[in-house]
Amino acid sequence: MMILKNEWPAVTGEHELVITRLLDAPPALAFQVWSDPVHVARWWGPRERGEDFTTPVCEMDFQVGGSYRICIRSPAGRELWQRGRYLEIIAPERLVFTFAWDNLPDMGWETLVTVIFAAHGPSQTQMTFTQIGLPSVAERDGHIQGWTQCVDRLAAYLATQTV
Questions:
Q1: How many CA atoms lie less than 13 Å away from 117 in the CB half-sphere?
Q2: Is the separation of the CB atoms in 27 and 119 below 8 Å?
Q3: Nearest of 28, 17, 4 to residue 128 by alpha carbon
Q4: pTM (predicted TM-score)
Q5: How confident is the model at residue 12 (pLDDT cuts 50, 70, 90)?
Q6: Residue 31 CB partners (closer than 8 Å, separation 6+)
Q7: 160 with 26: CB under 8 angstroms?
Q8: Contact between residue 60 and residue 73 where contact means Cβ atoms under 8 Å apart
Q9: If pLDDT is split at 50, 70 and 90, which confidence band does 4 have?
Q10: How far is CA 158 from CA 24, 86, 105, in A?
């Protein structure tokens, strides 16, 4: 078990990671910023040396069986492409999708991501993010860092949004 510095501890197994975060937004808004490409493009991606990645392309067919394709660009200009399919959408409670890297030849595997949104009081959401199917501890640890930074950006973005 690994515990990261977080508002809520991130607990991981060997081939999975779990990040739980209390968000200052109701579940409907938290879910919306995961389901709308305009919102996703504003928070998706990690940081590199304190600078946010940008999201120049965010294509989403947000329906069960639909797909998404996202390009994130590092501050140095490196583009990384991600893709997946939506497997389960229960607004505003649950989102399940696959996740894979498109242009990283050593990452030709697909993982499964589940995001659960639970009301926490009148205006907060306890979000639980789980990614399973990571092929190694090294990959899990790399994804913990990236997803944790992404969740940090999500929380900061939500703080600027209103219902």
A1: 24
A2: yes
A3: 17
A4: 0.89
A5: low
A6: 91, 92, 93, 95, 117
A7: no
A8: no
A9: very low
A10: 7, 22, 34
